[in-house]
Amino acid sequence: MAKMMLAPSILDSDFSDIKNTFKFLEQIKAEFVHLDIMDGNFVPNLTFGPKVIKSFRPHTSLPFDAHLMIEKPERYISNYLDAGCDYITIHNEASKDCGAVINEIHAAGKKAGLSVKPGTPVSSLFKFMDKLDLILIMTVEPGFGGQKFMQDMLSKISELRALIDKNSYKCLIEIDGGINTATAPLACTAGADILVAGSAIFGAPDRVKAADEIRNSVKGCR
Ligand code: DX5
Ligand code: ZN
Fold first, then answer.
1. Rounded average pLDDT over 136-160
2. Which end of the chain has fewer CB atoms within 10 angstroms, the N or the C?
3. Among 134, 196, 202, which is best to mutate for testing ligand 1, by the most ligand atoms less than 8 A from CB?
């Protein structure tokens, strides 16, 4: 049985205290650091870009899982590669040539992902399935942390899980938005491999306890 992996999103963390954030993420044995990159165009919010990620890179060896919520991401892939991202995920809705972006990421020896917003069907990703390392299913409208998990996205997860298992694709399924101890087991049972959690961890009074509780909530789900 595959173990559920945790990718805490630092979106709701204190960016002035990033070194301690990484220490905490190492302490809870996070499998990834989820980096939410927003351009104020593809989504109505702004965060940080490759220069800031590059400044984070020396402070942890945890893999960087970059979620690019930016229009025409093909303009900046080399910057995110240079910044030290390990997984780079772009939105299928944001680029006219996702295939070329996947190839560019792979040519640099890094992992490539595609994401879909809640209104986009997973069938739009099928033609890329044999090349992808990761698919990120949004379970909220991208742009902000702390939103409510959209239960009707669960069927997308099970649909993808069945397709991946049937064809033995190597692609991981990552779920992003509204994950907490109540929703994590639903996502996991539907077939998720990686859970992103932002506010459920960084908004909790005891972050270590909150992360432990999410991990415990999915025990035995798959
Ligand atoms: C939303 C981002 C997420 C999100 C996670 O656009 O992609 O990673 O902020 O935060 P929570 O877990 O609070 O929904
Ligand atoms: Zn994200």
1. 98
2. N
3. 196
